[in-house]
Amino acid sequence: MFGLHEQKRVMMTNIESEDWYDPETSTFGDRVAGAREQAGMDQALLAKRLGVKKSTLRAWENDLSEPRANKLSMMAGVLNVSLIWLLHGEGEGVEGPVDEIALDGDILDLLAEMRELKGQISQTAERLGVIEKRLRARLKAAV
Questions:
Q1: Which CATH architecture has domain 19-95?
Q2: Do the beta carbons of residue 26 and residue 77 sit within 8 Å?
Q3: Which of 1, 64, 104, 112 could lock onto 59 through a cystine, CB 3.0 to 4.6 A?
Q4: Domain map of the chain by residue range?
């Protein structure tokens, strides 16, 4: 187990690394937003191309909901990234943003803390989904 200082160093290295959109540092929504920006589209244009409301796309980018398989496939094509990259951050995707200015230590610490919290939230959401499935199975069995 790493100490707090070591965890921060590893996280800062991840933030500064080429793998900006890897599964450890990004969510599905992060990858959608990054690919959309790389493609030079705003939310309204991508939503129009996908045939969804802008609020729906915004919910996907904010990890509040996920698209169905047909929209996910269409999105990968429109954004010119692989489906696996959108879902898991692996495969053909986009490069991380290039920082035009050097960030000081305080900003890197804040970014690292934000990434850590996003990771914890993602893990908690997955765990909640597993618990919900177990609860539904037990309720179904009790009937």
A1: Orthogonal Bundle (1.10)
A2: no
A3: 64
A4: 1-18+102-143, 19-95
Q: pLDDT class for 10, splitting at 50, 70, 90? A: very low
Pure H helices in 53-94: 54-61, 69-79, 83-88
Closest C-alpha to 28, from 71, 83, 88:
88
Question: pLDDT category, 21, cuts 50, 70, 90?
Answer: low
Q: Are 90 and 32 in contact (CB under 8 A)?
A: no
| Residue-level length of the chain | 143
- pLDDT for position 45: 94
| 32 neighbors 86 (Cβ within 8 angstroms) | yes
Two structure tokens written together for 83: 């489906």
